[in-house]
Amino acid sequence: MKKTKEQVFEHAHAGKLWAGNLIEGYQNSGVKLENRTPIDDSLIGFIADGQAEDVHAAVLVARSTFNSGSWQGLSPLERKQVMLRWASLIEFHSEELAALDCLDAGKPITECLNTDMPATVDTFYWYAEALDKMFGKVAPTSQNELGLIVHEPIGVVGAVLPWNFPAQMFAWKVAPALAVGNSVIVKPAELTSLSAYRMVELAYEAGVPKGALSLICGLGENAGEAIGRHVDIDIVSFTGSTEVGRLLLKYSAESNLKEIVLECGGKSPQVVFADADLDAAVPHIMAAAFWNMSENCSCGSRLIVHESVREKLLDKLVAAATKWKVGNPMDESISIGPMVEKVHFEKVKSFIELSLSEGAKLVTGGKIFSELGSGWYIEPTIFDNVTPDMSIFQNEVFGPLLAVSTFSTDEEAIELANNTHYSLAASFYSQNIHRVMNVARRINAGTVSVNGFSEGNITTPFGGFKQSGFGGKDNGLEAFEQYTQTKVIWIIHH
Ligand code: NAD
User: Fold this and answer.
1) What pLDDT, on a 0 to 100 scale, did the predictor assign at position 26?
2) Contact (CB, 8 A) for 170 and 196
3) Weakly modelled stretches of the chain, pLDDT under 70
4) What is the tens place of the pLDDT at every residue in 388-441?
5) N or C, where is the chain less crowded by C-beta within 10 Å?
6) For 82-102, b where at least 16 C-beta lie within 10 A, e where not — what string?
């Protein structure tokens, strides 16, 4: 039955929301962790505290399902029909899933309803529709040979997810991995397991064999590390911090050399040239900087502006910032909810103090709403006079702090934009086509958007260079490359 967001909020209030491990035929130990919402730090339920033995049980069923062919052995058309059913169930239950993400991550309910869930549903439909349109190749050979280049599912996929876009990140990984026939074991972030649990239940309802998709909830250092180290997992696809990404590479090296795909952090630049249309740019700059409380890997957290338009642009941004209302994210008028947890809130807060002590100038914001709910609410904050040696220029804050620096030549702008060890996304603003062509090529980022902030959409690959990414891309048909291996079948006839 369809649940409204009000019904979900009521369940949360009663502390009744639950996300357990879902592993075919296996009862987990029953140990659980408290689940508190960042909205007011109240207890909304529990999640399973998955351990290495749970991961091992999931791998056993994933492998035997893969070997049995009950999922990968279906015709593409049959798998597509199941995936389409799953997509439509997720669409049908969108309001419930949106409310779960709002509670778990403190994301504004309007964004969960109008942005995250439509994008999640679209991802499922898109990969369902794409899966039976993938072709292999025939090699150019002499007449007595036939060389086939085929793409096969890899086997058992581990997907380790972050907390910032819970439903959407689940879709980005699980939809393409499962569509091509793999068995998937998914571990959501411990802070945000509720929508993942519900989507796996819906997968079973749609007809995905239970052994082809398991859910393990729990902590990164237990369930996450066990996935990273398991010798019978063939690939781990991860989205999260660069720090944990590095660990996964290490676990792979120390276990079975499983493939590792990493989508990690960012410190994305937004460059505003003197010829930019400032009024058109402002809403995009604000969204890039503050959307989703800036808990966004492609957050445009560095504003690099030509010195001649700096003052004018800052005035416009300060005026725009007043319209970003901070408050309870269950309220539909709110654009900024709380930071996802206390530890993270303290980290963001410390960057405000550090930026001031390093000489950055506070232009607007900086206020913490300690009287509101959990007290982890921070308003959009802009620092000017930021130089590349400052922490706020180099480090991913993952909170609503925008660092402003100025430049005088195009060369200087490009040098500043590229001056971090991340390279995930970038945006820039100019009306000069020659500058657009030049700068788009020279900014080093996986996605460069011009005259607007965008991550592309499901049709385009997403992922970063340098320490923002490794080994493959999410989204687009490119995601299928992550989850398939290329085999050559060489037939000789006499
Ligand atoms: P995180 O690295 O702390 O956690 C991500 C996942 O890794 C969680 O499921 C966690 O339980 C697990 N994990 C933690 N320790 C582990 C360990 N030792 N072994 C195995 N798994 C472990 O990241 P987060 O705080 O959840 O998410 C924020 C980060 O994600 C940011 O850095 C952000 O930029 C990044 N991110 C990147 C993208 C992208 O596509 N590039 C998208 C969203 C978020």
Assistant:
1) 74
2) yes
3) 27-29
4) 999 999 999 999 999 999 999 999 999 999 999 999 999 999 999 999 999 999
5) C
6) bbebbbbbbbebbbbbbbbbb
Whole-number Å distance, alpha carbon 225 to ligand 1 midpoint, is: 12
Ligand 1: nearest atom to the Cα of 344: 25
**Phi/psi at 333 (nearest 5 deg)?**
-90, 0
Instruction: Name the residue with the closest Cα to ligand 1, atom 15.
Output: 220
Which among 164, 89, 166 has a CA at the least distance from the CA of 125?
89
Q: How far apart are CA 87 and CA 72, in angstroms?
A: 19
CA–CA separation, 76 vs 480, rounded Å? 14
Q: Are strands 43-48 and 32-36 parallel, antiparallel or unpaired?
A: antiparallel
Residue 248 buriedness (CB in 10 A; 0-12 / 13-18 / 19+) = buried
The sign of the dihedral angle between the CA atoms of 288, 291, 293, 296 is negative
How far does residue 435's CA lie from ligand 1's centre (Å)?
A: 36
Q: Which of 251, 262, 289 is nearest to 446 (CA)?
A: 262
Q: Hey, how many other C-beta atoms are within 10 angstroms of the C-beta on 380?
A: 26
Q: What is the pLDDT of residue 151?
A: 97
Whether the CB-CB separation of 378 and 345 falls below 8 Å is answered with: yes
133: its two tokens: 């349109």
CA distance 225 to 134: 33
**Ligand 1: which of 168, 192, 250, 264 to mutate, most ligand atoms within 8 Å of CB?**
264
At 224-272, the pLDDT tens digits run 999 999 999 999 999 999 999 999 999 999 999 999 999 999 999 999 9
